[in-house]
Design goal:
Two copies of one chain form a homodimer. In chain A, the strands form two sheets. In chain A, strands 5-6-4-3-7-8-9 form a seven-stranded mixed beta sheet, sandwiched between helices. Chain A is an alpha/beta fold. The N and C termini of chain A lie far apart (40 Å). Helix content of chain A is 45%, strand content 18%. Chain A is built from nine helices and nine strands. Chain A folds into two domains: 80 residues, Orthogonal Bundle (Arc Repressor Mutant, subunit A), CATH 1.10.10.10; 112 residues, 3-Layer(aba) Sandwich (Rossmann fold).
Chain lengths: 211, 211
């Protein structure tokens, strides 16, 4: 049912789904087999009514007086999130962040297999990270033409990121996971921006004003 | 005035402040010296009335019929965010992510100077990243006792992160920037969590369901 959602789900709901997934996975790991929306609320920091409302978007799953079966709800959310799909990804920018992403097992667990790394630094080109050789950045589009690539992960500096994202979008890539602090208007691709710098500014705010 | 905010500002407002700061910085860089809330709305993706409401929390700044002076508003937001404060930070976990954070100039620009790196891998201890030597993780608390450390940046795996965060909190550290996918109930510290994995799950959702 949730594979073809009839109504568009609002961004804040989608932002909370990974949190539910993470908390429910922890519960399952700890051997906890059921949970009330109130208990889930305490774990997640969203109100119980918010949680019930969110999950109703996707058809409910809870039972009055029982709560939620943690493993079942986790698996349902995993399916809503599409975790069991497999995607091929390339990393553009084989610096420390790019290689950190490359090695991060959470990426693989979430359905993304990184098949290639690109960089424009001649000193890096040809080097291996695990079993993958770093390729020249100017062969990126050629590579995409000849291999299945669903997602590009952008870890190059701000100055280079805009142009690369624009080209990848024009080239028809499905997904772009962007770590550079730029916003690019795309026409085709789905872009997810991770703003590491916004996080540190939030911390800075709270250090000054208190929580 | 905004150094001692009388009313607690809601989390979503604080989450938008870094976005305003980033967009206004881009405007100033591009030589654009004024901007209406409508134009700022198009850049940020929040409604113009949302923006006016947010900025009213901190005293307004806009002028009817003129809009905002970009440099002035950027500087005001910088002060609200506390960017001009300097904090001393340590990185716990000198893997690829930890060293990527260490080298990321955005951190320094946001007011954080990383003064030490810790790891529990004997092969890493004693190695240098730029001018800083990697120290043994079990000397972390001792180090904090003898140096000014405002913030700890946690880039260790999930399994180790919980215990380290608990200890740092008990030890009275002011701020913790946590990259591990754990939530720890702290009593003292201000914790900012950056959830890289939640981002990839959001992307996965949109790849399945469309934007």
């Amino acid at each position: 049912m949730y594979k073809n959602l009839k109504n568009k789900v609002a961004t804040p709901v989608i932002r909370r789904l990974p949190v539910y997934y993470r908390k429910l996975s922890d519960c399952v790991e700890q051997g906890r087999d059921r949970i009330s929306s109130q208990e889930l609320s305490e774990l997640c920091g969203f109100s119980a009514s918010q949680i019930r409302q969110d999950l109703n978007h996707f058809g409910g799953f809870g039972q009055q007086g029982y709560g939620y079966n943690t493993a079942l709800l986790r698996d349902e959310i995993a399916q809503i999130l599409g975790i069991h799909n497999r995607y091929k990804a390339v990393v553009v920018g084989a610096g420390r962040l790019g290689t950190a992403i490359f090695e991060y097992e959470g990426i693989r667990k979430s359905g993304f297999d990184i098949v290639a790394l690109f960089d424009n630094d001649p000193k890096k080109i040809g080097m291996k990270v695990e079993h993958v050789t770093i390729e020249p950045a100017d062969e990126l589009l050629h590579y995409i033409d000849h291999h299945q690539v669903d997602v590009a992960i952008i870890t190059v500096p701000k100055t280079a990121a805009e142009e690369i994202i624009r080209r990848l979008d024009a080239h028809g890539i499905r997904g772009i996971w962007n770590f550079a602090p730029v916003d690019v208007n795309v026409t085709h691709s789905i872009v997810e921006n991770t703003r590491i710098n916004d996080s540190i500014l939030k911390l800075s705010y709270y250090l000054q004003h208190g929580r």
